[in-house]
Design a protein that fits this description.
By secondary structure, the protein is an alpha/beta fold. It folds into two domains: 4-55, no CATH class; 62-260, Rossmann fold (3-Layer(aba) Sandwich). Helices cover 32% and strands 21% of the residues. Strand 1 and strand 2 form a beta hairpin. Helix 2 (15-23) runs antiparallel to helix 4 (40-54). The protein is elongated. The termini are far apart.
Length: 264
């Protein structure tokens, strides 16, 4: 039987977190108990996980969870793995309204529910709806919910007919088809990643239809790719005012916030 130290010395991808996962030991315990010999069952499980990582399976899919903002979320190959860049949307939304003000929020393309669940947990007095075209993703989001959230299945605004909101947030697919970046994301759902030749097909739909689903003075907040901000601002200028742009923590253009223009 192999010891913890032998595995640590193997150089396998993510070997320390994989050992922690299989043995339910902290990093400190892995060091202090490095002569521990794995049982045959533990070794078989660990070796299978190591092979999955070699084959490119993300660690979060193996562990089944991923931290985001102040919560841990269940994730599966039916949902994207939460990215720290998306935490920017949480910060923007939390700063948008006075602390005790209610907000009717729509999170479109909710996936594992990270945006809807995080904001509902931070503001339990908000009325939060999360939607996704994937029923499997909706099931995961429901399991992640810490408060009462309305989840609905459907493609974009089809999921919320005849409803209006104070704030609509979306981290939609925005990667260009054929982008080399996709080669590193083969285990994640492609439909949650790509949106046409320029990556803007879904964003165009959202911007075009959002005015019909926003209350007076309502807001639209979008995550986007690093090279799409100028085009998105131009698309928003028809029906929105007070357009603000944001960079993520790596100084890449990442989000746009806009307020619905009032018609006379």
């Amino acid at each position: 039987m192999k010891t913890i130290q032998q595995y640590l010395d193997s150089g396998a991808i993510d070997i320390a977190p994989l050992l922690s996962l299989v043995l339910n030991k902290s990093n400190v315990e892995l060091i202090t108990q490095n002569e521990y010999q794995l049982t045959p069952t533990e070794q078989q499980t660990l070796d299978a996980f190591i092979q999955q990582r070699i084959d490119g399976m993300p660690f979060s899919y193996i562990s089944g969870n991923k931290g985001f903002y102040h919560l841990d979320f269940k994730v599966t190959p039916d949902t994207l793995i939460p990215r720290p860049e998306t935490e920017l949307l949480i910060d923007i939304a939390l700063d948008l309204f006075p602390k005790n003000q209610t907000c009717k929020l729509l999170d479109m393309g909710t996936g594992s529910g990270i945006i809807a669940v995080t904001l509902a947990d931070k503001n339990p007095h908000w009325a939060v709806t999360g939607t996704d075209f994937s029923s499997a993703a909706i099931e995961i989001a429901q399991q992640n919910a810490t408060t009462d959230i309305n989840f609905a299945q459907g493609s974009w605004f089809d999921a919320v007919p005849n409803q209006t909101f104070d704030l609509i947030i979306s981290n939609p697919p925005y990667i260009e088809q054929g982008d080399a970046y996709l080669n590193d994301l083969t285990h994640e759902p492609i439909t949650a990643l790509t949106a046409g030749k320029d990556g803007l097909d879904d964003i165009r739909i959202i911007i075009d239809q959002a005015p019909d689903y926003l209350n007076k003075n309502g807001f639209l907040l979008l995550e986007h790719g690093h090279n799409q901000q100028l085009i998105i601002v131009e698309l928003l200028s028809k029906n929105f005012i007070n357009i603000q742009t944001f960079k993520d923590y790596n100084s890449n253009d990442r989000a746009v916030l806009a307020q619905l223009k009032q018609t006379t």
